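TASK: fixed-backbone design
INPUT:
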């Protein structure tokens, strides 16, 4: 029994030593810049070193808080003892529409064991600023002067503005500017504003030019003949149709009277029903006795 137990312990020790020698941890190093800015491609170098001959599967990628992730690459390689495997991974391109944020580059071994190395870096881009087109109103009359202006969070931005007219022709203009509303239809103003150290801002606005203002004439006219004719009311002809307070008061009292009368009728009906039930009950009690 003792020899069998000793043999089992010895076998476990040998197997553990064998596994340790067969699968050894890999030293992973990542070399990446602390930050990337607008116009740069995110990339990093990484190195894998093993002290034994072994085949591994691994993934490499970079992830950011609010930006598209790079393409995850999966590879299977055979590491030769103490010979570094050096690779370069290229990730996303930093464009003007990406905000400043924190990111992480990582290399993760997935087989025959799991091991991960990572390194933090930053994407640093220009801040954005508010820029809007300013219009006095949205509908103008033909021949009216239209003032096109802007509101900017930063001073003196460089502005590129184009105005599309109702006939689909396009004019390059400088803001602020005043134009004459000669064409009837819809105008479209598109702008881009830029300033050193900031992201480019864009804005778009539409406005319309009409022939003339709508002149809504009242159908009911007041002829001022001291007679409240058809179509004349207290509102459009008060001199012929004065406000009659007595009539309004009469109508109000009439409504109150009808409501009270209705309540009295309902109460009388209820009393009549109750009395009929009491009468039937009394007759029933007399017959029973």
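OUTPUT:
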């Amino acid at each position: 029994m003792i020899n069998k137990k000793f043999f089992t312990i010895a076998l476990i020790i040998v197997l553990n030593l064998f596994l340790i020698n067969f699968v050894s941890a890999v030293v992973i190093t990542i070399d990446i810049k602390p930050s990337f800015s607008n116009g740069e491609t995110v990339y990093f170098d990484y190195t894998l070193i093993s002290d034994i001959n072994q085949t591994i599967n691994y993934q490499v990628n970079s992830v950011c808080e609010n930006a598209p992730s790079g393409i995850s690459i999966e590879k299977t390689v055979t590491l030769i003892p103490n010979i570094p495997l050096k690779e370069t991974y290229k990730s996303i391109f930093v464009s003007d529409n990406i905000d400043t944020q924190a990111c992480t580059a990582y290399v993760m071994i997935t087989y025959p064991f799991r091991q991960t190395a990572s390194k933090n870096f930053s994407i640093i881009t220009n801040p954005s600023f508010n820029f809007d087109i300013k219009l006095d109103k949205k509908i103008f009359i033909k021949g009216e002067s239209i003032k096109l202006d802007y509101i900017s969070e930063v001073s003196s931005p460089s502005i590129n503005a184009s105005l599309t007219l109702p006939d689909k022709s396009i004019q390059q203009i400088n803001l602020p500017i005043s134009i004459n509303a000669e064409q009837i239809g819809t105008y479209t103003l598109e702008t881009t504003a830029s300033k050193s150290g900031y992201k480019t801002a864009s804005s778009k606005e539409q406005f319309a030019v009409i022939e003339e203002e709508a002149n809504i004439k009242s159908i009911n006219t007041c002829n001022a003949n001291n007679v409240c004719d058809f179509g004349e009311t207290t509102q459009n002809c008060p001199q012929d149709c004065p406000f009659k307070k007595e009539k309004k008061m009469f109508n109000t009292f009439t409504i109150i009277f009808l409501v009270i009368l209705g309540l009295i009728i309902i109460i009388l009906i209820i009393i009549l029903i109750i009395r009929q039930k009491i009468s039937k009950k009394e007759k029933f009690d007399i017959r029973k006795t």
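COMMENT: The two ends are 107 Å apart (CA to CA).
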